[in-house]
Amino acid sequence: MAALRLPRAPASAALAGAAVPHRLPPTPAQPPPMWVPNTAHLNALLTAYGRRGRIRDAQELFDRMPRRDVISWTALLTAYADAGDPDSPRLVFDDMPRRNAASWNALLTLYLRAGGGRFTAAAHALFAKMPAKNAVSYGAMITGLARAGMLREAQAVYGEMPRQWRDPVGSSAIITAYLRAGELGMALRVFDGMAVRDIFSWSAMVDGLCKYGTVSEARKLFEAMPERNVVSWTSMIRGYVKRGMRRDAILLFLDMRNEGVQVNAMTLSVVLDACSEASLVREGIQIHGLIIAMGFEMNVFLGDSIIIMYSRFGLMVDARRVFSFMEQKDIVSWNSLITGYVQNNMIEDAHVFFKLMPERDAVSWTSMVVGFANRGWMREATDLFEQMPGKDGVAWAAVISSFVANGDYVNAVRWFRRMSKEGCEPNTVAFSCLLSALGSLAMVNRGLQAHAHAVYMGWVFDSAVHTSLVTMYAKCGRLAEAHLVFSSISNPSLIATNSMITAFAQHGLAEDALELFNRMQNDGQRPNHVTFLGILTACARAGLVQQGYNYFETMRSVYGIEPNPGHYTCMVDLLGRAGFLAEALEMINSMLQKDYPDAWAALLSSSSLHSNLAFAKLAAHKLLEMDPYNATAYTVLSNMFSSAGMKDDEEMLKIAQMSNMASKSPAYSLIIQEKTNTD
């Protein structure tokens, strides 16, 4: 055990016992010296203020600093730059007694981030004056120029960059610049020539191949990566989603989880999109559960994605529940819910939330206009449009397309003219709607003028416009012009091909329709349900019963397309026209939706064509059960009774009376009822 240390005794016993006549008062204890923060500490605090956006505190601290070094000045400059102030940093920069590379780079990055002609030019001038550039300076300059669309200038800066600095920062920047411009080949050339690659260059190339190359090439490069982070995984998953390979995206996400890579909000949002687009309800609900388990349920961005997903599933109760539980809601949250209600034809609910919105933007107004129009409530749609504070091209196009969808082609043309007169530049969507309206009105001369305007505007290569041109000419009976437009397209879209097949079918050119169908498959295009509607129509018009039946069967077996009521109606028409009325009736009875009016109307038409009163009566009675005021059913039956010499028949007289009543069917008025309860 250590010895106990006692207080020291006085030096002399005499002194210890002697009286002291004049004892001096004890010296008061001095406080410890005050801690004065050094410049490094103050610089750290200054930087923290800047990152938190506390600009006033940063400036006051800077003004009180006893000593400032170049780091202090750069921290203040960066604080103003991060706050989005493009002018104050230059004043700080000009006052700096000494500058280093970080100071120059901070101002350079600010100018490039601000963008626009003025700041890009200022960045160019600053970069030229820099006394000592480094890899960061070159990388920032290349990225900023590429973002401004100045690829050639970015290339020039990369060419000036010393070779020892190019990899990986400069090369990654120019790769991103090339990919931003869609120049995949140039990006690959730089990537292949890199001596040193980092995870950013690898991830950029994976993303670029997904966008502009093939997914298989992107996956091959992804698998070759020496290391992968959340960005590279998310890029590959997004690539699958964008190419419609949603199940592959989900499987890759599971691989990502199995490898222990920490996902972020962007990854989860992409996977939610995959689930919603592929109607993977069970998987989507599981991803929602994972988001809650990972503590992301309060993320507004993910909350919006979940609302969109449930809306696409048609689960609006769940979408509403997610919306209600969100502590923070932005305008996207409101718009997502309203759009979901509109897409699911729940217009009254959409209108309630539209009125409750704390603020509205163009998307809010346009969604509600489209909702009214989808119900056929064009007066309410146009009234709401007139109240819209800022009418953009999207809103105008929505109204014009709504007139087309509701068969009011005259008003579609009028509103397109009004759009131009009121100073809103027509876009390709509105122009495509105009072409559709002109085709439906058979206004071929106006259509020719519109075509000339499309050429002048450079719109003829737009997928929607050239497809609408094909359809417009076909509807006007100008099949040669339709085919000429279609043939001028170097790589026609599936929509354009479908339009041409439909045009051939409607003009009775079944052989041309089938030839184009075979050619599109040879070119790698996969037919969809619209393609088969055109093919079955062509077979029906040409009486190709066996071929039509074969195509109908291959929809499921070869292409995995489930026939919808429209396809069944084409088959009823095909069989009925050929006189196979019993088989046509059997086709209707095999439908899931047996009360589909168009199918029974096709059977009625075929029965009339072949003067088969028994089948005509059956088809007419089915139509009248669905719509007692169907004048066509009464008229066809009446004519058939008359042709059969049954004018005095009691049933004939009853049908004639009902025909007169049906021609005077009552009108309907529309009243929008608003809910008062938002629960």
Task: Explain the overall architecture.
- With 679 residues, the chain is mainly α.
- The protein has 39 helices and no strands.
- It has helices spanning 13-17, 39-51, 55-64, 70-82, 88-95, 101-114, 116-129, 135-147, 151-160, 163-180, 184-193, 199-212, 215-224, 230-242, 246-258, 265-277, 281-293, 300-313, 316-325, 331-343, 347-356, 362-374, 378-387, 393-405, 409-421, 428-440, 444-457, 463-475, 479-487, 494-506, 510-522, 529-542, 545-557, 565-577, 581-589, 597-609, 613-626, 631-643, 650-662.
- Helix 21 packs antiparallel against helix 22, helix 27 runs antiparallel to helix 28 and helix 37 (613-626) packs antiparallel against helix 38.
- The longest helix has 18 residues, at 163-180.
Main β-sheet, in a few words? Answer: none
Number of helices: 39
Strand content: under 5%
Distance between the termini: 78 Å
**Overall shape:** elongated
Number of strands: 0
| Low-confidence region ranges | 1-25, 659-679
Taking Cα atoms only, what radius of gyration do you get, to the nearest Å? 37 Å
Helix content: over 70%
Based on secondary structure, the structural category is: mainly alpha
Quick check: average pLDDT?
A: 85
Keywords: Repeat, Transit peptide
PPR repeats: 38-72, 134-168, 198-232, 330-364, 392-426, 493-527, 564-598
Pfam families: E_motif (PF20431), PPR (PF01535), PPR_2 (PF13041)
InterPro entries: E_motif (IPR046848), PPR_At4g14850-like_plant (IPR046960), PPR_rpt (IPR002885), TPR-like_helical_dom_sf (IPR011990)
